[in-house]
What does this fold into?
Amino acid sequence: MSLAVTLSRAQEGISAPQVMVEVHLSGGLPSTNIVGLPEAAVREARDRVRVAIQNTAFEYPGRRVTVNLAPAELPKDGGRFDLAIALGILAASGQVPRDKLDDCEFLGELALTGALRSVSGVLPALLRARARGRRVLVPYENSAEAALVPDVDVRVARTLAEVCGWLRGAEELPAPVATPSTGGADDGPDLRDVRGQLQARRALEITAVGGHHLLLMGPPGTGKTMLAERLPGIMPPLSESEALETCAVASVSGQVIDLARWRRRPFRAPHHTASAVALVGGGSYPRPGEISLAHNGVLFLDELPEFSRQVLEVLREPMESGQILISRAARQSMFPAQFQLVGAMNPCPCGYAGDPTQRCHCTPDQIQRYRSRISGPLLDRIDLCVEVPQVPLADLGGPRSGNDEDSATVRARVLAARRQSLMRAGRPNAEISVRELERDCALGPAERRWFETALERLGLSARAYHRVLRVARTIADLDGGTALLEREHLAEALQYRRVQSPGR
It folds into this structure.
């Protein structure tokens, strides 16, 4: 029989749909034709595969070769199908047995020498193959990434000849040998490096517990960037499923996964000249942007007003939904974007408005225009806004106080408070629904009257109302997890909204 079928995986967002590689040999003039909506890199595989087979001491069939990549409506790109195509041709021509092809999936690009080269998106493919209970063969260069996925039979190979020897039963292929480290939070920047800034540290702790968005405002050099960089170190560690999903996004983008830090929450800090496409993702073949690379971690935007208005506005929808749909003419791709936004900005163009040690040279109109670069709807989605003042030089050089806690101490409180929300709703407070708010954020009659009066005076929107309640719930969890929200919880949550209006 001159027909053989091998299995592989395409790349579509962070999913990896299965592709059946059907190879048929027929009479006629020698030729190779690849069908099934292949892109240019896939069509060129016919030359790579032919030369690789010949250089591996196998015979390329002198017949008409037809390769079908099914399903036909799914676009295929890259060199990830080279190995599956080569094995299909060899099996159809009777040079390798077919018995091991049925329950195994093959990923890998072929060099002209027959060597296997690494491909992107191996991790999502392994996760999907694990769900189907199939064995997977990947290039040796992808072995470190393949070692991250437990409970899946993975084999690695360096050359096409090794794969063929394995199919013939002449040799065994090894499993990935890299042992991933847990990559704990202790290996990052420590919060103890930050002197003073008690209110900012408190806001950072609330942010870590509830998964809220944070805006830091203050003059240059007050420690805004230092605080933001230390947020991942006090956040709860990633679960295995969260870490694998985060690594899957990095794998699709073609990044090398650091096995020593794969369980650490990501921290992304794009420059303010970044475009909207760089932030949300895109391209002819959609790739994840910074918001997806920050999935389950922190997206830090320093000098927030310096970002283009258009760039900032694209954040609004993913901040609410936790995902981003990228639509192009030929395809659509969905990427996760469950990130925590941390913004940093100066109070004015020169940076010294309200600073007692430096003179501000900006007019009120200039300050207003500067702050209004951040739209009201975007500010409305930021839960906490904190002013970060200058720290006296005497405090910087003096002995540390008891308030200068390290990340481990703060993280212990964060874990205890986060445990309250997980037991109550199964998710961080920033993600609870309106119905869960009514259940979990109960107010006494006096507290409700006081809260409604405060909201009217501040002129807050309905979205802000719900976000204040979520922050108050987080503060209550830090305070021991009381069932009823007290006035001090509401008052502290409200003070983080007072400076969010550009005119205030």
Notes: Confidence is low (pLDDT under 50) at residues 500-504. DSSP finds 22 helices and 20 strands in the chain. The longest strand covers residues 18-26.
